[in-house]
Every structure is written in C-alpha cells, then in structure tokens.
Design goal:
It is built from 2 helices and 2 strands. With about 90 residues, it is mainly alpha-helical. The chain folds into 2 domains: about 1-40, no CATH class; about 40-90, no CATH class.
Length: about 90
C-alpha cells in the first residue's frame, strides 16, 4: 500500500508542478521495480494502391474521358483498372 501511495503522491506532485513529462520519466525507479518508457515510433510512408473504377458517367464509351472514371483521371500504364459488369446494372 505504501508503494501505491508514494507513486500516487509523485503523480499528484508532478501534475501540480507543471513540469514536463520527460522530467518525470527520468526519475530513477524504486528498488526492484520495473520501469518502462513508452514512446512513439515514426513509420515509413506507404503508398496504398487502389484501382481506378470505370463509371461511364460521361459518355459511356470513351476510355480517354476522365469523367468516365471514379478518380476523374484517365488510367496510366501502371494503374489497376476495375470495370464492373455495367450491362446488368440498373439504370
């Protein structure tokens, strides 16, 4: 119970003092206690690839019309394209 009270008292003192969190993390831990420092690790940037979907909203036939695609751009050579079964789709 003493350990809990001591840590609670340290936390209250820290919050009321206005000190930075890093100062509290540098304090030595008590004998036999386990202290873990938590942090945030920056990850590399990733590019999520999504297919460009044919909508046919412009004229329903022109591959080169950007308005016929959901991203409003014509697919390039490296893009994945999805063309749904629009023949059976309701109007």
């Amino acid at each position: 119970m003493t350990v809990v009270r001591t840590r609670f008292a340290r936390a209250v003192a820290f919050l009321s003092s206005g000190r930075r969190r890093s100062e509290l993390a540098r304090r030595p831990a008590g004998r036999g206690s386990r202290r873990e420092l938590l942090g945030v690790e920056a990850l590399e940037q990733r590019l999520v690839l999504a297919p460009i979907t044919w909508t046919g909203k412009a004229d329903h036939v022109s591959w080169e019309a950007a308005d016929n695609w959901d991203l409003r751009r014509v697919p390039a050579s490296g893009d994945d394209v999805f063309i749904p079964d629009i023949a059976s789709a309701p109007n």
